[in-house]
């Protein structure tokens, strides 16, 4: 990951990150205005270049097992996890558009699916419905405004085909699905198989776009989407605002083939929820950060809620990484997460600058069986930070907590035991 100093102005920030809660004043750097270009729906070719402070939360109980298994997919929940920070709802349209392509054959299904996405977009929105089975994708699927792409569950598979790396998406990378500026979109109930286990994904532009690529979009919902065999980040939100990924999963299982395989990645974006997901970037040796909140250049990333996730970071990273630089990471709220089996639990990092990370809430999380058994194995802020509230967390067999003294920092009621 790679990333001028800006003037600071007072800005009210919510300690919970939730709308309508008590606010306090924090310094927030001026940032550039949203530069997205607005335009009508695009007709696409098949293969064209194509964080809530809980002030009274009790410590989380720790299982007795030495390690916590991660399920490869999520069970059907009684109710979906709440997108409380963003309020994202995705597409509101209910008009159905069935895909006529036949799954489970060797024929490229990109054009059939893209054609239905385009048709729904032209009509003002719709639900593009996929049956159970495997669909071969040699192109790059690009969403349109107010469109849902919906499968039947993990058994609906979008799989990168043998020619997938022969063309790129609109930002020069290799997404299976990208929003590319489309607003009010929903991706739901399917598996995205990037085929990085069989393809050679070490191609130019590998890190330009991501398996599920939500880019410069507003009101975007990703739910019950499961990624596998990535050769880039798995689920990413780049720019834009008002997004939510819930009840989904990522995994990295390759060995010695790739680097920088983050699970869920938020970059230069705001007002997002990462909630109720299972992230396992250590099934193989190639995985990196489980969840990363990242600035690139002088753009900020802020007002993100990371809650109730089960996370194992990969060998090359951390369970959760707050990665600053010339832009600022602030108002990130981590609550009720279990981070286990990672090199370290929560970590800060800086890439192309030293703008201070501030206003971070770390409340009621569990850190267990991580590699580092000394200072910082659970939570490690290596550089000065301000207004960090770290309370009621539990660590076992993971080292303890490092939070440097700083204005507004609170370190209280965190527990540590050598054994889980």
Would you give an account of this structure?
The structure is a single chain. This protein is mainly β and 420 residues long. Helices cover 3% and strands 35% of the residues. The strands form four sheets. Strands 3, 4, 5, 7, 8, 10, 12, 14, 17, 20, 23, 26, 29 and 32 form a 14-stranded parallel sheet that branches. A ten-stranded parallel sheet has the order 6-9-11-13-16-19-22-25-28-31. Strands 15-18-21-24-27-30-33 form a seven-stranded parallel sheet, with no helix packed on it. The protein is globular and about 60 Å long. The two termini are 33 Å apart. Residues 1-77 have low confidence and may be disordered.
Largest sheet: 14 strands, parallel
Shape: globular
Taking pLDDT < 50 over at least 5 consecutive residues as the criterion, the unreliable ranges are 1-77
How far apart the termini lie comes to 33 Å
Query: Helical amount among residues, as a percent range?
Result: under 10%
Instruction: Work out the number of β strands.
Output: 33
The number of helices is 1
What integer is the average pLDDT?
85
Q: Structural class of the helix and strand makeup?
A: mainly beta
Summary of the model, kept short:
The protein is mainly beta and 420 residues long. The protein is built from 1 helix and 33 strands.
What keyword list fits this structure?
420 residues, 14-stranded parallel beta sheet, mainly beta, 1 helix
Compile the SSE list and pairings.
Layout: E1 8-13, E2 24-29, E3 96-98, H1 110-122, E4 126-129, E5 133-137, E6 141-142, E7 147-150, E8 156-160, E9 177-178, E10 185-193, E11 212-215, E12 218-228, E13 235-238, E14 241-246, E15 249-251, E16 264-267, E17 270-275, E18 278-280, E19 291-294, E20 301-307, E21 310-312, E22 320-324, E23 329-335, E24 338-340, E25 346-350, E26 358-363, E27 366-368, E28 379-380, E29 386-391, E30 394-396, E31 401-402, E32 410-412, E33 415-417
